[in-house]
Specification:
heterodimer, A: alpha/beta, 6-stranded mixed β-sheet, 4-stranded antiparallel β-sheet, 14 strands, 37% helix, elongated, B: mainly alpha, 0% strand, binds adenosine-5'-diphosphate, binds magnesium ion
Amino acid sequence: MAGAIHATGLVKTFGETRALDGVDLDVPEGSVLGLLGPNGAGKTTTVRLLATLLRPDAGTAVVAGHDVVRHPDRVRLSIGLSGQFAAVDDRLTGRENLRMIGELYGLRSRAARRRADELLDRFDLTGAADRMSSTYSGGMRRRLDLACALVVRPSVMFLDEPSTGLDPTSRLMLWDIIEDLVSQGTTILLTTQYLEEADRLARDIAVVDHGRIIARGTPRELKAQAGGQRVEAVVSRREQLDAAAALLAGYGIRTPDVDRPRGMVSVPVDGGVRLMTQVIAALDAAGIEITDIGMRRPTLDEVFLALTEVAPRDTSRTAVGAGAANEKE
Amino acid sequence: MNVSATAPPVPELRPGTAAKSLRDVLVVTRRNVIRTVRIPEVVVLSLVQPIVFVLLFAYIFAGSFSLPGAANPAAYREYMMPGFFVQTLAFATAGNSSVSMANDMQSGMVDRFRSLPMARGALLTGRTLADLVQNVMVMTVMVLCALLVGWRIHHGVLRAAAAFALLLLMGYALSWVGVVIGLSVRAPEAAATSNFLWLFPLTFLSNAFVAPSTLPTVLRWAAEWNPLSATVQATRQLFGNPGLAATGAWPAQHPVLVSLSWSVLIAVVGRTLAVRRYRSAGS
Ligand SMILES: Nc1ncnc2c1ncn2[C@@H]1O[C@H](COP(=O)(O)OP(=O)(O)O)[C@@H](O)[C@H]1O
Ligand SMILES: [Mg+2]
């Protein structure tokens, strides 16, 4: 089996909206792909196509070895889905919800009951197990929804913004569970708006925007793509800002970005600690006082903003994001 | 504890088998019945409504209308009751199925079910069977109430049982119409409102409360061939309740056959459309 998820040229239109405009995805067995994108990018549509809930207008997708259009039934046996909005029966108790899902997967009543008890325990819902789920908090509903997706051991798991609405404790619990699933060989496709989450969980990230994959790679590769290392210096006296920018230009590989409100100059560089010492020495020699200087990689947030070209208007937030967006033009 | 280590890897019932399909239907039916009874006031109100209507009809309408040829209110009550049974069942069942289905669409439960290895159509059949369970309850309450206000069964238990079966079958068929509507609209409120649009014409343009012979030609023809007219006519005959002079229209001459055929036809067409909509839901 070549990859647990293998999709090529997926297209889906809703009336005038081209929700997916040729999406290719490859997720090797046992790995996690983080699908990252702003609202309306096409993340949920991708998940719904792969989980057999929608038929693509064009393109093909093979999930867990089966074509999603030709053999949706076989795909459904191998997947677990936790959609963007928790789908649990509000008038059934947590326990009844899990038993029902187990029975519909094909477990006998006794096995479904045993599995429900285990999951209630694992997801910290035992105390609320016999209450109607309409009485649950948002986080509890979300946990119950995740538990529903794990009733049988799915070989491929789809998690559409799984941590939305979770408190920090539940989020850590979710992360634990995801890591545990991966260690058991489950393939996971998760969509998220939390870059921290993608960074932590996913070995590979695909950035989607306007129904297309606009970048992919490991978090490290994506950060490098948005400009690699940067030197940032904050001057103590604003009148020296331009002088500092001129000086740093000599060390950078591109024109420095100047953030006036913060008195900060930042420039992409091609070098390590030695370069840094040279910069500090040069600033000192030129009599430019600095309060802070550092070398850092862009955060995934900045990469994301740069790639999706929604660079912040508020320049005080980050000069790097804006710079990277300029570079792309 | 490790979540996946303890997970049952292979389902014990394979999808595609008759046993699995039957079980899927039962599991969904049970879920829907639980949903109904879990909010007791829903059940109570759904049963109080027919009681109120029976009493209103029996004491207000029966007082001011009269049946041609039989001028006492008791005869009008007997005449009116089968039509009333049909109307109440039609509204109850279509309301239940369409609103519940639209609810499941809106709440994401349809997506949840569609991502499971369930028999195709099990969710829908489970919906209509749960409606049938509720129809039996509504029917029982309505019949008891009708007996209290003077309605009677005249031709014995067997024929009465056949009449109830025809009523429930028609209710079951209309439940499929409700499912199609529920899968087609985008909100439960729309489903609830849309029922008035087709059920009021359907029930009033029938022989339930008026004589088709008094209507202009086109409307009369529609009323004579109306599936509900056949069911009303058939149950009047089977219960032995007074009817109107037969118009000579073919459906009025063979009401049991016509009612049965309509019910089967509506159920089959409704199910086919519903399954098609279900499979492409959300796209
Ligand atoms: N059922 C639908 N009908 C019409 N438009 C839809 C439907 N589902 C999604 N869309 C549109 O498709 C685009 C992608 O949506 P979606 O996949 O939900 O994005 P995301 O999950 O990344 O926020 C959006 O423009 C959205 O409005
Ligand atoms: Mg989404």
